[in-house]
Amino acid sequence: MQTDAMKMFGLQAPIFAFSHCQDVVAAVSKAGGMGTLGTTRDSVEDLENMLTWIDYHIDGEPYGVDIMFASNAPKQFETMTSKEIMDLVPMENWDFVDDILRRHDVPPYTKAEKEEVVETYIKEQLRTHAQAEARLEVVYRHPKARMIVSALGVPPQHQIDRAHGLGLKVGALVGHPRHVKHHKAAGVDILIAAGYEAGGHTGDIATFVLTPQIADEAAPIPVLHAGGVMRGRQIAAALALGAQGVWAGTVWLGTSESETTPVEKELMFNASSGDTKRTRCGSGKPVRRFHGGFVRAWEDKDAPEPLPMPLQSVLVEQAFKKMRNHQVEGLLSPPCGQGIGMMDEQTDVRNIFLEMLTEFGETMEKMGDIRDSLAA
Amino acid sequence: MRTEVMKMLDLEAPIFAFSHCRDVVAAVSRAGGMGVLGTTHVTPEQLDIELAWLNAHTEDKNYGVDLMFASDARQEFERMNIGDVDKYIPEEHRRFVDALMKKYGVPELPPGEREALFDEYMKGMIRTHKSAEARLEVLFKHPKAKVMASALGVPPAHVTDACHERDIKVIGMVGRPKHVRRHKEAGMDIIVSAGHEAGGHVGEIAGLVLTPQVVEEADPIPVLHAGGIARGKQIAAAVALGAQGVWTGTIWLGTSEAETTPLVKEKIFAATSADTLRSKCGTGHPARRLRSAWVEAWEADGAPKPLPMPLQSILVNEALERMDRYQPQELVSYPAGQGVGMMHEQTDVRSVFLDLLTEYGETMEGMSNMFQQFDEG
Residue B273 and residue A213: Cβ atoms within 8 Å? Predict the structure, then answer.
């Protein structure tokens, strides 16, 4: 069986994996799927090293790179000093975030430390178009990277054209059927219908309703179904809804290869599907995260409103760094989807991949039997 | 193909249809599915008339009835009368509703009707267990009512037993996998997995994630998938997830048979899937409904917090009646799921039913062909 999305990259399985971890990306591509690396957590230099590592470990298989083109990141951020940008964050918000950490016995950075950490963040990771374009330059130097994916918004036309000129395919995530026509007009090759239940940046429309509408609007462009996919039967459901494959992220967070910490993994293995929330507290846009102490703090009556992208990240990324170092169970709130309710123990990428494919095949076979009895 | 659920109730299609409209219920049952009548908007006396009508209009087919057993409806409310309202409903809430009605120029009810409406509501419709059981007595008088569905909460054991004695199948609804156990212990015959995208009372977990988990927990009890079903390909997807059929609601709101007003239909056909939201403003429990100035006012900063069930319904009952009667353009809302984005024009129940079944068959055929290729290489 070959869906159009599989043919596009010569894949053996209709499974696309999003991960911030180079090991997961390589393992999925080697297993016959399409690993796609998230790039918001690393500097341009780190990205260069990661892609070099992937090139070396991927046995010639294709992979993708996910880039964030935040459509509303004002251009002025690209020329401002980090001091000027930090001054745009109200003092009350800095204090609020420090306070969250203190309540969980995590000492916040001193003023001087914070300035340094935030300056590095702004220099290396601030979510502006200039950052996105610098990352793309790295991608273009690595010919085994066969796809760029825009995590938010329509990619700029000149980048789509340049990617196409280099033989790369361009993908994009969409959360609302009415956004499809913009992507189509821009020449995007593959769309990812990202449902409410998905981890990371998501909209309000659940996949069961979203995927069929995106598939209709996008035709003949192939569509991947994103949100909640942990098991093979959900791949069969996604194909029934008109998708040509699935885009999965959360399911890899519980693997031994993943960058997720042991404490975060335990949180996810013990969680149910009701233990995630969509919140603007991490980036300024709605992101589904584990409903941990950090997210809860922003739900308090007296909590400030999250700032717009990219300022909210300027404010909270330094706290996330502290949280990564201290690993306080009651505070951690990593991005993840509702699928965590179906994740119970650590395994590895290859195992998950094979289990998904096996159950997918079994479900397809069962549906074939049902179809035969329908026809009889 | 006959799933266990279809065999259990002798159905020709794995489609259950929830509707407040007897015409929809009858048409679905006649077409080979299972029509299920919602009963919260009628008194037991009116329900008796509705079921007698259904008996006469379902030919040799059966139908179901949906009751609400709210687990948090306190007994003291069963004795409430008009004089008690001030005691239970804060002034702030009453003022908020009045101000909204005034702001949008919704006419008052004619003299005398206000009190009559309130009396009727308190006597016949208040959402308590006692009220649900009064409806149940009516249901028992009509032997073609073969299904009792509980829209909220686990029905009490004596209710389930009484149904089973009469060979009535009992259906429970869940929005979280961990609630399945209680329904299983209570002897449910079928469990409905109601996803975040569904209309009416819903939880936060989306159908694609919820249904496989509910199926696993419920086994061997059969499961129906509810939420967002507007097309046949979604029935195939539900079956892939392990469900034995689908429970639909919103899709029937756009039919010529439905009770919905022309304005509600117009709003539904114009809506995208993002134009509904979960709000407690109608009943005190989160229910998904069409976005409107009424719903948004309750969700706005500074709005009073909706009261617990059944007080919120008592508070808004008159306003809902006025909006239903006078159809103020901006305010009018209706319980509906995210499937509204897939509804574009009025049709009838039979057409919807046939379209669902045809696309379901086509999708199963497509999947089967795909699998053969998959198997071959």
Answer: yes
